[in-house]
Amino acid sequence: MSTTVTTTNDPAASGGPGGPAASGGPVTLITGGATGIGAATVGRLLAAGHRVAVTGRDQGRLERFAETLGAGPDVLLPVAADTTDYEAVRAAVDATVKEFGRLDGVIANAGFSTHDNLADGDPEQWREMLLVNVLGPAVLVKAALPALTASGGRIVLVGSTAGIKNTPGNMYSVSKSALTSLAENARVLVTGSGVGVTLIAPGRVDTPFWGSHPSGSAPAGPVLTPDHIADAVVWVLGQPAGVEVNSVVVRPSGQVH
Questions:
Q1: Residue 246 lies in a domain
Q2: Which regions are flagged for Polar residues bias (predicted)?
Q3: Known catalytic residue: 172?
């Protein structure tokens, strides 16, 4: 795992022992949190003492997910929201702050791949992918920034090694490259405000992401589990006040690209 770390002198930065006291534990909102990396992250956050708001498009599915965790409304808030709809995401942020009294972190996790390329892909599917993978995280940052500025909180954007090492004509790589740029753009914007920004770029992870792949499964070779990435997310959020981890790249041993 490679990291880039910067430090800040702002004593209000949240996520670690030096951060502000939060009755009941820190509050974190995650998009696309009912499956794969998102679901594993929710479980890890709850175990670490966070209160968590989880979003997705289907309220019933979110509530069923909450039931599987056995987590009550005092620590887990399911909120239906289209990640590409600013008003819906802002309403989810507002609901989180209203329910838990604050917001200490947001995780832009929702995303998908069309598993195609510039030569043979469907532009209409690209449109939806770009909206979810790029516009969605930008919308979350905009909606959450006032609350995060108040708490000295953290923003985590879940990218991909595909956004660092492109493959020929891969439109998913294009979307994740844009997200990589968004992370740095956001970091420069908020530097000095007490808000931290982190890009986490996983390599191949065995999740339902691969269900839409033509093969129906992850490519042959080494893979990570969702828990590996969830652990990285919780590690980032748990850094002490004054420490900002800007990028984390996590590949399974043996993955070249």
A1: yes
A2: 1-10
A3: yes
3-state SS assignment for residue 173: helix
Own/partner contacts of 211-218, CB < 8 Å, gap of 24 or more, are: 212/112, 212/113, 212/114, 212/115, 213/113, 213/115, 214/115
Q: What is the pLDDT of residues 176-208, one digit of tens each?
A: 999 999 999 999 999 999 999 999 999 989 866
From 65, 100, 172, 209, the catalytic residue: 172
Closest CA to 62 of 47, 48, 73: 73
Q: Over the stretch 86-102, which tens digit does the pLDDT of each residue have?
A: 999 999 999 999 999 99
Q: The CATH number of the domain where 184 resides is what? A: 3.40.50.720
Angle at which helix 226-237 crosses helix 36-47, to 10 degrees, equals: 50
What are the residue ranges of helices labelled H in the chain? 36-47, 59-69, 86-100, 123-130, 136-151, 171-190, 226-237
- Kindly report the pTM of this predicted structure: 0.87
Q: Domain range spanning residue 73?
A: 2-250
Q: Is 256 part of a structural domain of the chain?
A: no
Mean pLDDT along residues 65-76: 93
Q: Does residue 257 belong to any structural domain of this protein?
A: no
Average pLDDT, stretch 243-256? 92
44-57 CB burial, b ≥16 within 10 A, e <16: bbbeeebbbbbbbb
CA–CA dist 116, 229 (Å, integer)? 25
